[in-house]
Design a protein that fits this description.
Helices cover 34% and strands 24% of the residues. The chain has five helices and eight strands; from the N terminus they run βββαββαααββαβ. Helix 4 crosses helix 5.
Length: 201
């Protein structure tokens, strides 16, 4: 019996960040939580991202399961380039070309090794930290992904939760509001007396 190949489709979706457009495919793009490229050098492990950086207006590329969020420079308006990018992605994915050819390097932040350890080994997180990560994964990540971004838990100290915003959320004008009202409210409701503030790093 022949396997029916589902035609690939890609549609563009606005995000709360006016500089970012989200392109959603009806198939898995990357088999990772997310991967982010800030320039063509970082994109060496992704032939798709590398080609996207050849568009002069592409500033950053963020990929997650079934979508690609592209941040542009303010030299063009989305209306003039959205169709071109959508068609490029459609052709690329239909041709079955590789999206990733390597594994993204783990970025070391200021608190470096400690953070990396807590990131890669949630078993080392304390009870409160583990609960915060669960809440973020269950209640916050899906909403943030819809807007073309991601949120990662960084640290919890003195009743302050530190998070990292990625993708479309990173430079979004409304991200501060999202943090202060949305995420902070959820955490305070679910962990009363344990969370006083949520800050981006």
């Amino acid at each position: 019996m022949e396997i029916q190949r589902v035609p690939v489709s890609v549609y563009a979706e606005m995000t709360p960040n006016p500089a970012v457009m989200k392109f959603v495919a009806n198939k898995m793009v990357v088999d990772l939580d997310h991967v982010e490229f800030h320039n063509i050098e970082e994109a060496a492990i992704s032939p798709l991202a590398t080609e996207l950086f050849h568009f002069p207006f592409v500033k950053e590329v963020f990929m997650s399961s079934n979508f690609i969020a592209i941040q542009k420079y303010n030299v063009v308006e989305w209306e003039t380039v959205t169709q071109e990018i959508r068609q490029f992605l459609l052709d690329y994915l239909q041709a079955g070309k590789p999206v990733l050819t390597g594994t993204p390097a783990v970025k070391q932040t200021e608190a470096s090794a400690e953070d990396a350890a807590s990131d890669s080994a949630p078993t080392e997180l304390g009870e409160i930290e583990s609960r915060i990560v669960e809440i973020l994964d269950e209640f916050v990540k899906p909403a943030v992904a819809q807007d073309g971004g991601n949120i990662a838990f960084v640290a919890y100290e003195n009743k302050v939760v530190k998070v990292q915003l990625q993708g479309a959320c990173a430079g979004c004008p409304s991200s501060t509001l999202t943090l202060q009202q949305g995420i902070k409210n959820i955490l305070q409701r679910m962990l009363p007396t344990l969370v006083e503030d949520v800050v981006p790093v």
